[in-house]
Amino acid sequence: MPTDLALKELILRQLPVPRTPEDIRDDTDLLNDLAMDSLALANLLADLEEEFGVDIPASEETLSLLTRYDKFQSYVAARARTAPPEDDA
Amino acid sequence: MTIADWLLERMAETAERDALIVGDRPCSYRELLDRARDWRDRLHGCGVRPGEVVWLEGDYGPGTCAALLALIAGGAIVVPWSPGLPERDAEWMELAEAGVSLHPDGEGWRVQKYGRTARHELLRELAGAGRPGLVLFTSGSTGTPKAIVHDFGRLLAKYRRRREALRTLSLLLFDHIGGINTLLHTLANGGTLVCPAGRAPQNVAAAIERHRVELLPATPSFLQLLLMTEAHRRFDLSTLKIVTYGTEVMHDGTLEKLLNAFPGVSFRQTYGLSELGILRVRPCGPGSLWMQVGGEGIETRIVDGLLHIRSDSAMLGYLNAPNPFDPDGWFNTQDEVVVSGDAIRIVGRRSEIVNVGGLKVHPLDVEEVLLRMPQIADAVVSGRPHPLLGQVPEAVVNVREEIGAAELKRQIREFCRGKLERHQVPVYVAVRREPLHTERFKKIRHRGGLS
């Protein structure tokens, strides 16, 4: 399961404009508050799947998870694998 | 008189010279012509008539080359086929409507007849006109291949003009338009075709050294592999004068490395398609990727950024696909080009362009940057379907030292910052141990081919 900081760093590295972990609070809307565009989102979903084994389909329903960081974190924590993958990224 | 008479007469002028060297065995022009006569008699004896579609399996051996000459002279429609390719022979043979097949069998040959008569109108037209034909298949890597029909007489015509006789290495396969071009060009000019024991870089480099090869017709993928394996450092390749490269796009960075590794060698771009034959190209300066395509019997135009060509040596059509020529005879190559004055530069196949939410990504641009990373030995970029953006770039790479894909992706993103636009940076990265090219030394760009 990723730590809170690891998950925040994974989110932050997708952003076109640099931010810090402190900019992400429990109620942060990842898409709107962090100005995450579709490319950043595509990279976020790819990295989540590859690094934590969490597959979030890019549908409207599942993307609602991104409206609050705490909701997103709980979702990832419940599904993350323990060991990192070796091959593809 | 047959369409091949001039070629056979030309070959007789250099009867004592080596036409082929297979492994270490030379075969003179005299022997090749004798074998072609034997084949003519044998084919006649087997009932092979003008207009018959004949499947010819083999590599560049004396027997295969002689059979090819005999078949052309006899007005047959030849389907050259390289052994060792996937087991699709029966299906493709039927597609070509082959009535006879010739297979190497130990020291001899096996002739098989199928009682099949060609029915397709293109084949019947050739047979009716008593003209030899050539059937080639488009690369079968993306579904069913297309069977291309050429009038062999038209293809042969371009070799009548005498050019320099060189010792040439046969890298491209016997059933590839580039391979056929190399063979005919060599034989028509009294050159020697050197056939290596294998097509791995060390085999090719060893053959160049041993037989003092002057001309190497290659592909960018093969040349990239040659640099990667450093085979050029282990063998003496100083006899090389010319290296030609075509069939796919060359990266700037690779060309630069080649120019440094082979000072004094002239690197020349070629342009050809199975549908059009190999066309003459005038490069804009040594080592330039800009060129002019043209020459006698060839016209070009750019429509919507795509290269269209009208050529005297174009195919007659496909056996299993609609006629691709417009009413005026223009063929859309699907190659996207940029233009500067009267020169063009090929940037890639339009179908290979990745569309990231409406923004175009040329795989070549991304690959060029990736290949500048010291940890990456080879890279292929393609489009991966994506529900949000339509497609996103995906890179499949060979690395020089073990590294996890996630870590490599982080390094790639870091390296690409400031060198590529955000939408050009690969969203997915996969590390592969196997080569990223086909056995024909062309990059595998479709996703299924790399999985």
From TrEMBL, chain A:
Pfam families: PP-binding. InterPro entries: ACP-like_sf, PP-bd_ACP. Coiled coil: none annotated. Residues 1-80 form the Carrier domain. It comes from the Bacteria. This is Acyl carrier protein. It comes from Cohnella zeiphila.
Automatic annotation (TrEMBL), chain B:
PANTHER family: ACYL-COA SYNTHETASE, ACYL-COA SYNTHETASE FAMILY MEMBER 3. GO terms for molecular function: medium-chain fatty acid-CoA ligase activity. InterPro entries: AMP-bd_C, AMP-bd_C_sf, AMP-binding_CS, AMP-dep_synth/lig_dom, ANL_N_sf. This is Long-chain fatty acid--CoA ligase. Residues 9-281 form the AMP-dependent synthetase/ligase domain. The lineage of its organism: Bacteria, Bacillati, Bacillota, Bacilli, Bacillales. Keywords: Ligase. The keyword Hydrolase does not apply. One of its GO terms (biological process) is fatty acid metabolic process. Pfam families: AMP-binding, AMP-binding_C. Gene3D superfamilies: 3.30.300.30, N-terminal domain of ligase-like. It comes from the Bacteria. The keyword Ligase applies. Residues 366-433 form the AMP-binding enzyme C-terminal domain. It comes from Cohnella zeiphila. Belongs to the ATP-dependent AMP-binding enzyme family.
